[in-house]
Design brief:
This protein is α/β, with parallel strands linked by helices and 299 residues long. The protein is built from eight helices and twelve strands. The chain folds into two domains: 174 residues, HUPs (Rossmann fold, 3-Layer(aba) Sandwich), CATH 3.40.50.620; 73 residues, no CATH class.
Length: 299
């Protein structure tokens, strides 16, 4: 096992800081054990995502949490301040996939910007290895800064850490039992390739993109309804004609017993949202030109 001095091999800017960090570690002054004689206090800062080195923003956030932890100790509290690492998310998986596909740009970023040794970059095709590598590197930074953390309670997300996963399961079941959460549906940005929802910081591209809500306006054409998507449904009162693209592919589908005419692209998107869609037949846009339709408001 490495000694305390070996453990803090990343040098602080000032010698006296390294001296006191080492003494704190040797004295174990930040390790919190049960103590019924003192009030308990728990604090944890937002988990840093392990897809790269820590930066100044992490230092800003962590320092605020550390300052409060120290303040509560001075007030007599038995403070538990664990450390956590965020391993879940698609940015790590995306890096892995891009390397598998031979992406030279991501390889250069890892070596030239993140400082990853070139001889181990090929191992980054394993998402768990990526997270583990950055966790090991970033832990040196956290310890060199001197945050008042009980590293015995260190954890990371994903089911690779069964104890943390059990905690999350307990947390959700407890909140559900108390009626604070329910299972339902809500719009998300969806990746059909990964077949999963993607958060803003999980995407390789498209940060800031959010779901757009369209209203389907039905125009009756015999026993089929042409479904036109719009962001401005209030303008339907001024509709005089309906345009279709003769170069696009159109389909007739059935939803809740109603036949709709939509584009193939719309069908692909709706299929990711609704489970009761049935494909009826193709529709030739050339045969639709010149047909009469009835508007929903004018009939």
């Amino acid at each position: 096992m490495a000694s305390s001095r070996e453990e803090f091999s990343l040098s602080s800017a000032l010698d006296y800081e390294k001296k006191w960090i080492t003494k704190w570690s040797e004295a174990k002054i930040f390790e919190a054990d049960p103590d019924p004689s003192r009030p308990k206090f728990f604090i944890c800062v937002p988990y840093s995502y392990q897809n790269g080195p820590l930066h100044i923003g992490h230092g800003f956030t962590f320092t605020r949490g550390d300052a409060y932890a120290r303040f509560k100790r001075m007030q007599g509290y038995n403070v538990l301040f664990p450390w956590s690492w965020h391993w879940t998310g698609e940015a790590v998986a995306g890096t892995s996939e891009r390397l598998k596909q031979g992406d030279q740009l991501i390889r250069r970023v890892l070596v030239e910007i993140d400082g990853v040794p070139s001889e181990i970059v090929d191992k980054f095709t394993d998402p768990a290895y990526i997270s583990r590598y950055y966790t090991e590197e970033n832990r040196k930074v956290v310890k060199a800064i001197g945050f008042s953390v009980d590293f015995r309670r260190e954890f990371y997300t994903t089911d690779l850490h069964p104890y943390y996963s059990r905690f999350i399961t307990w947390q959700y079941l407890t909140l559900k039992k108390k009626g604070y959460i329910i299972m339902g549906e809500h719009p998300v940005v969806w990746c059909p390739h990964c077949n999963s929802a993607t958060g803003d910081h999980d995407r390789l591209v498209g940060e800031g993109v959010s779901p757009e809500e369209y209203t389907l306006v039905y125009f009756r054409m015999d026993d089929v309804y042409l479904a036109a998507a719009t962001l401005r449904p209030e303008t339907i009162f001024g509709v005089t004609n309906v345009w279709i693209n003769p170069n696009h592919q159109y389909l007739i589908i059935e939803v809740d017993g109603k036949k709709l005419l939509i584009s193939r692209r719309a069908f692909e998107k709706l299929s990711q949202q609704k489970k009761n869609i049935k494909l009826d037949s193709d529709a030739d846009p050339r045969q639709l030109t010149g047909r009469m339709v009835e508007g929903t408001s004018t009939g």
